[in-house]
Hints:
Layout: H1 71-81, H2 105-110, H3 113-121, H4 125-140, H5 145-159, H6 166-169, H7 174-185, H8 199-206, H9 228-232, E1 257-259, E2 266-268, H10 269-274, E3 278-282, E4 291-296, E5 303-305, H11 307-317, H12 323-336, H13 343-361, H14 366-382, H15 385-393, H16 399-544, H17 551-563
Antiparallel strand pairs: 1-2, 3-4, 4-5
Helix pairs in contact: 4-5, 4-7, 7-8, 12-13, 13-14, 16-17
GO molecular function: zinc ion binding
Protein name: OBERON-like protein
Domain Zinc finger PHD-type: 241-301
Amino acid sequence: MGTSSGSNIHQQPSSRMLPPRQQPRAGGLQTSLSLVSSDPRLSPEEPRSNSDHRRESPTESASSRETWPTADAIMAKKMENGKAENDCPEQSVIRRVSSADKISLRDIARERVDIITEKMHHLPDEFHEELKNNLRVILDGNGGSQQREEFFVLQKLVQSRADLTAKTLIRAHRVQLEILVAINTGILAFLHPNISLSQTSLIEVFMYKRCRNIACQNQIPADDCTCEICTKRNGFCNLCMCVICNKFDFEVNTCRWVGCDLCSHWTHTDCAIRDGLISMGASGKSGAGPSEMLFRCRACSRTSELLGWVKDVFQHCAPAWDREALTRELDFVSRIFHGSKDTRGQKLFWKCEELKEKIKSGLAESTAACRAILTFFQELEGDSPKSLENGESGRLIAPQEACNQIAEVVQEAIRKMEMVADEKMRMYKKSRMAVEACDRELQDKGREVQELKLERQKKKSQIEELEKIVRLKHAEADMFQLKANEAKREADRLQRIALAKSDKSEEEYANSYLKQRLSEAEAEKQYLFEKMKLQESSRASQNSGGGGSDPSQLLLYSKMHDMMPNERHPFRKNP
């Protein structure tokens, strides 16, 4: 601030260093659409672990709000992560989904991860986008109390679950995980189509292991900070979040944020004023100096002077401000020094009020007002107690006092150099950690690619094996069909042979039967013939004795005649 200023800066020609919040960030981040309503009555609740640290006040509408970056910042972040995608999704034909297969936001917030994952894998991408749009509408906060109550219900369902761990979330569907993170944090940016975080990053944000600020995304606690706030407040990032309200925005080159010279934690100016962290106090390391406006850091409880900090901000940033920005910054300075009781602070307050009135009334352009305030700071520097003391003593300075002043300057320079070295070391460690994280992520992606290739080869070999089995089964089927056809032809042939043999056996049986009957008839004929001969001889002997025809003999002859109608017998007479 006054004599030194926090982190993420480079050495300036001035004796003071530019605070981190004045240094432009990569991607040109600017204040954009609010992720959470600025009205505290409409703002979704903070994550459950931070609810005790959340404070509501009308001043939060000015600075204690979470915003998300513009399209330029989003694309810069995506290019940094190497995950840029098409800005516009392809239009596709919407497929119908039965009511039984549909899932709602409450189902995602309430049901087990594996169950919802299984259902979402069977749903079309259009339905996934519809779910995200429904949650976007709720998080916009423009639908009144009903949507706010719906969000509170969803957040309570998510935050009351004990099964949402890193082990279970790693198996979650991508859209399911984005919705859970958006509900848990209340940040709309996680549903933005142009923002694509890795599955691991989303899980770390949900588990409070990574900053929920899309433009920050640092592992937390940031810079391995061991202060009580960073270690005990889940999800807090000291690089981008306010120590008091636990929120972040993308305001830079501004007095909206005030930082600690020693621990580099940041606080919204409005939050610091509201909680009484900006007040009068004794300046100097010994605490015996003149009273002036000081900022007391809640993280380390140390103080930093504000006049030099405001001067640094205006000297380095004011030339780039437009009329509206300059008016806003003058208003911040007025609020900071409103209760000042020292002469310089009161003069600065009156000067800011005067310039605000001139700008509003059109009596002064922004360029002239900027020159006026910078000139005023130079005049204040001449009115400082040290300058007055030097002016009174003139050039007659005792050697010991001169040595003491030189020693103080050297010690101040050494302290600044040490702070810069510490900051550079922190930045180096942070960059190294980021590179290592990227390397680990690349290794993980490489392993995933190798696993996918192995899985693909395995599936390909399985498909080829199945195709071989199918071809073999087709050949077997053809062979069995051929054998079946041959068996059918053989059966037909055997059936014809059987029929022919059956006809032949019947014919042979009939012939055999007729032959047997004929032989029987011949035997009976022979028998009857012998009997007739015997009777004939007997009759002849009787005729010689004068007897008549025997009736039994006539009957026997008639029977023989019937049995052999076509034969002529020697004893048969023609009629």
